[in-house]
């Protein structure tokens, strides 16, 4: 039975809402080699390649709209249904309803929707539920679970309130976002998470799931930037300094430290993020990676470093805040120091492949919803650096082959 389901799943077209689940499967499970070979795009790309090419009356287009319905995946997450279905064999809807606390009619319709739209669960005999490879990942992978929870139990609600928030506040402050409205808070997402660690943890799990996706791997920044040459070193000793601002638990610095043995890394983030982060650094790198609590909107305490990277940070902030964070760096910069931004890059329409452009536009909408922030074009970056300080020079932007994010580099000159 399990084999039949696996073949069924592997031959079905990849459905965007199961992409995160599949991506986790590929990296963490050996359940199905076929799934690992399934072409994947990010889980937030809920449209499909054919969206926009259909007339409104085309049933395929309607199907694509309908699959956006989040209730089934939200129910699967909220009632922790995957853990209540036996790994082998099946369970009746009635027994599952009793186990998870969702009434029979609603449980059955949610799962039957998930089966046909997301290939999560199957009905091997009438009235009984069994796992598919995709639903099994939700048992085995905490990050996949966090991803489904965050997208369907948090982001969807926030998306629905985004324009309402714009009408209510007309502001680009992060605490005036659709996300803040949906959470009934006057705080920004980061501030609210600081007081709600369980939400922060779910978000971090979702980020880990996304970070493992093709195109977003840290290796694109590690291999796509000349780290070893940012400081002179002939002896292999740590001679240069990199200050990774908003560097979270140091995941990127750990990879960069392996690639550039002549560099010392300081990871800066909010206190709750860096708290205890040293524990995650491998023993052989501990002398080269330090953590420091620092709010990037206040004056930079590490003076004279060679590179100050911001990876996946500025797209969380409006232009005004981004300018403010760059201004806070200025007094610490030595001539030749570089600011390196690793973010999505919004293209001129039609200049990227359709799938890549959809991914960028989707992320741009998420930034709108969560933070009143945005992804940016080249001219936006030029304007932001110039507004921060005209002594930021030589802006360069490139995208490593296969990377979803581009690298933006600016050099500091004293005049
Ligand atoms: C999307 S995460 C990116 C993490 C990491 N750079 C990466 O690429 O995986 C954004 C990070 O910015 C941090 N952050 C938010 N506000 C900050 C502030 N005022 N000062 C420093 N870091 C901040 C968050 O805590 C979070 O770790």
TrEMBL record:
Residues 241-388 form the O-methyltransferase C-terminal domain. Residues 1-20 are annotated as: Disordered. One of its GO terms (molecular function) is O-methyltransferase activity. GO terms for biological process: methylation. PROSITE patterns: SAM_OMT_II. Keywords: Methyltransferase, S-adenosyl-L-methionine, Transferase. The keyword Methyltransferase applies. It holds the Pfam family Methyltransf_2. The keyword S-adenosyl-L-methionine applies. SUPFAM superfamilies: S-adenosyl-L-methionine-dependent methyltransferases (SSF53335), Winged helix' DNA-binding domain (SSF46785). This is O-methyltransferase C-terminal domain-containing protein.
């Amino acid at each position: 039975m399990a084999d039949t389901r696996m073949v069924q799943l592997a031959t079905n077209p990849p459905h965007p809402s199961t992409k995160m689940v599949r991506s986790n499967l590929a990296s963490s499970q050996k359940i199905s080699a076929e799934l690992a070979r399934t072409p994947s795009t990010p889980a937030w790309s809920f449209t499909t390649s054919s969206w926009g090419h259909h007339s409104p009356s085309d049933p395929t287009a309607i199907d694509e709209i309908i699959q956006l319905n989040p209730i089934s995946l939200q129910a699967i997450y909220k009632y922790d249904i995957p853990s209540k279905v036996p790994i082998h064999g099946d369970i009746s809807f009635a027994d599952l309803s009793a186990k998870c606390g969702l009434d029979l009619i609603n449980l059955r319709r949610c799962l039957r929707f998930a089966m046909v739209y997301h290939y999560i669960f199957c009905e091997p005999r009438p009235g009984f539920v069994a796992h598919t490879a995709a639903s099994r990942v939700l048992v085995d992978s905490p990050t996949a679970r966090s991803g489904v929870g965050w997208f369907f139990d948090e982001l969807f609600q926030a998306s629905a309130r985004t324009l309402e928030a714009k009408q209510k506040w007309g502001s680009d402050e992060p605490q005036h976002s659709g996300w803040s409205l949906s959470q009934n808070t006057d705080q920004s997402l980061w501030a609210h998470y600081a007081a709600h660690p369980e939400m922060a943890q779910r978000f971090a799990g979702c980020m880990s799931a996304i970070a493992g996706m093709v195109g977003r791997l840290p290796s694109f920044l590690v291999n796509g930037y000349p780290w070893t040459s940012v400081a002179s070193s002939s002896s292999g000793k740590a001679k240069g300094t990199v200050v990774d601002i908003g560097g979270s638990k140091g995941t990127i610095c750990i990879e960069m430290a392996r690639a550039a043995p002549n560099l010392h890394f300081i990871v800066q983030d909010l206190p709750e993020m860096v708290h205890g982060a040293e524990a995650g650094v491998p023993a052989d790198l501990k002398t080269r990676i330090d953590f420091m609590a620092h709010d990037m909107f206040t004056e930079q305490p590490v003076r004279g470093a060679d590179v100050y990277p911001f990876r996946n940070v500025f797209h969380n902030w409006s232009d005004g805040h981004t300018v403010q964070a760059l201004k806070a760096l200025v007094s610490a910069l030595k001539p030749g120091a570089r600011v390196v931004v690793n973010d999505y890059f919004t293209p001129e329409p039609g200049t990227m492949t359709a799938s890549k452009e959809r991914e960028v536009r989707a992320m741009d909408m998420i930034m709108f919803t969560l933070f009143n922030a945005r992804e940016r074009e080249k001219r936006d970056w030029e304007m932001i650096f110039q507004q921060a300080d005209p002594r930021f020079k030589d802006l360069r932007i490139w995208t490593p082959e296969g990377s979803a994010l581009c690298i933006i580099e600016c050099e500091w000159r004293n005049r």
